[in-house]
Amino acid sequence: MLLIYTRYLGIMKINTNPERRMKVTRYMTGEAYQYNDGGRAEAGFKGTAGDCAARAMAIALGLSYKEAYDEVAQANKNHGYAKSARNGVYKEVFSEVLERHGWVWHSAPKFEGRKARAKDMPAGTVIARQAGHYCAVIDGVIQDIFDSSHKMVYGYWALKVNRVQEARDRVVTAKLRIVNIETQIKHALVSGNSIAMNLMSSNRKRLGEAEMEFDMALDDLIIISKEEA
Q1: What is the pLDDT of residue 11?
Q2: Which helix (H) or strand (E) holds 53?
């Protein structure tokens, strides 16, 4: 069972730091880490706890801390454990909770000669699983109450991507680029402006590249649509 003890050094350092008592305490910027309690203090919770799952969930999913806490606690109860989120949660139980919100598990990326860290997580927002800990990671930066960027990451949860919609978006973006370049070419021909005419060759080259990009995006859409059907 994943437990984060209140005597863990990282937590104690944060809790005894004078900056913790400043009016603005929710964020403390670091190179690979930002202080973020997920709204715990604002929700009226006091002291320390092994509530990393609730905190990470609140931050990553944009929920209030109490909403995340209550959902994790209920999941623990449903699986025969105490109705609490302050003493850890099994990965399988937490995964079940996140799946209800459309989040899916991914194995950590592999590197030759080293283990994956939070900085290696994909762009966007994920929840990383480390040894005895969960943390929200946004664009490679840990959002938590202590810096665990030195710890390896076993895997992470991320919001399931609609691959078909992403492919459609790429097609639309490529088409808009074509229209934009064609408009520039038409304006140059109509105006006869010397500067615009000098850019004609460059624009025609860009148009060819955009058309190729559009064809590739369209092919991807067809393939992905068949795979997801």
Answers
A1: 32
A2: helix 52-61
Nearest to 51 by CA among 35, 73, 34, 31: 73
Provide CB contacts within 8 A for 21, sequence distance 6+.
none
Please report which confidence band the pLDDT of residue 196 belongs to, taking 50, 70 and 90 as the band edges: low
47: left (phi over 0), alpha (psi -120 to 50) or beta: left
Predicted confidence at residue 59, as pLDDT, reads 97
For residue 168, what is the domain's CATH number? Answer: 1.20.58
Helices 91-100 and 65-78 cross at an angle (nearest 10°) of: 120
Strand partners, 134: 129
Residue 23 has pLDDT above 80, yes or no: no
pLDDT at 133: 97
In the chain, the number of structural domains is 2
Contact predicate 173/140, CB 8 Å: no
Residue 127 CB-half CA count within 13 A: 29
pTM of the model: 0.63
Considering the domain architecture, whether residues 183 and 139 belong to the same structural domain is answered as no
Give residue 88's region: left, alpha or beta (phi > 0; psi -120 to 50): left
